Amino acid sequence: MPLAIHRMEINVLWKKLIPESYCKVCMKLFLGILVFVMSAQAVLAQTDTSETFQGVAWCDEVRPVYPGGPKALQSFLVHNLKYPKEAIKHGVGGTVIIHFQVDTLGHTSNFSVYKSVCYELDQEAIRVVRMLKGWSPYTLHGKKQSTYINQPFVFNIGK
After folding, report:
1. Residue 38's pLDDT is what?
2. Cβ count within 10 A of residue 126
3. Secondary structure (3-state) at 120
4. What is the pLDDT of residues 56-115, one digit of tens each?
5. Strands 94-102 and 147-155
6. CA angle at 26 for the pair 21 and 27, rounded to the nearest 5°
7. Cβ atoms 96, 113 nearer than 8 A
8. Which pTM was predicted?
């Protein structure tokens, strides 16, 4: 179920969390991270799928899930992702996609940048993904298998 937050709710939440003395850049950073979290939830919300591919039904498939589910992943990302100061200074933003493997034990490895924006943003996204531990592994027909995940990170400072 996608996260739906209305503009009024964001403003109320913002005023409760951040004093009025903070600049507009802080609000834009907050909104950028919120967009990132919403995109991450959309990608990981699919824990059970049933697809038909060329007449073959793939049932009994369970995608890898972060411990605690999508909400726990959201919380982890919000608390650990930091917008690099150099990227803010130069007004750089965009979507970085990190490609990584979840093995049969739920360990992550083989991290790579699938879609790059700039070095600083790419490295921050990799830093956070390396911290994600303890996934439930991908299973197909009851058998655990290694799989890859593409995790998007949206960096948006607004203009």
Report:
1. 54
2. 17
3. helix
4. 545 688 999 999 999 999 899 889 999 999 999 999 999 999 999 999 999 999 999 999
5. antiparallel
6. 95
7. yes
8. 0.62
In which region does residue 16 sit, left (phi positive, over 0), alpha (psi from -120 to 50) or beta (all else)?
Answer: alpha
Count other Cβ atoms within 10 Å, centred on residue 101. 15
The helix (H) or strand (E) run that includes residue 133 is: none
Q: Which residue has the tokens 């593409």?
A: 150
Q: Give the Cα-Cα-Cα angle 131, 134, 140 (nearest 5 degrees).
A: 125
Q: Two tokens at 149?
A: 């995940």
Q: What is the mean pLDDT of the chain?
A: 77
Which helix (H) or strand (E) segment holds residue 94: the answer is: strand 94-102
9-19 pLDDT, tens digit per residue, is: 555 554 555 55
Q: How far apart are CA 158 and CA 91, in angstroms?
A: 8
Element (H, E) at 110: strand 108-115
Rounded-to-integer distance, Cα 59 and Cα 82, Å: 38
Average pLDDT over residues 127-152: 94
**Structure letter (DSSP) for residue 123:** H
Q: What residue segments make up the domains of the chain, in order of their start?
A: 7-155
DSSP bridge pairs for 81? none
Count, residues in the chain: 159
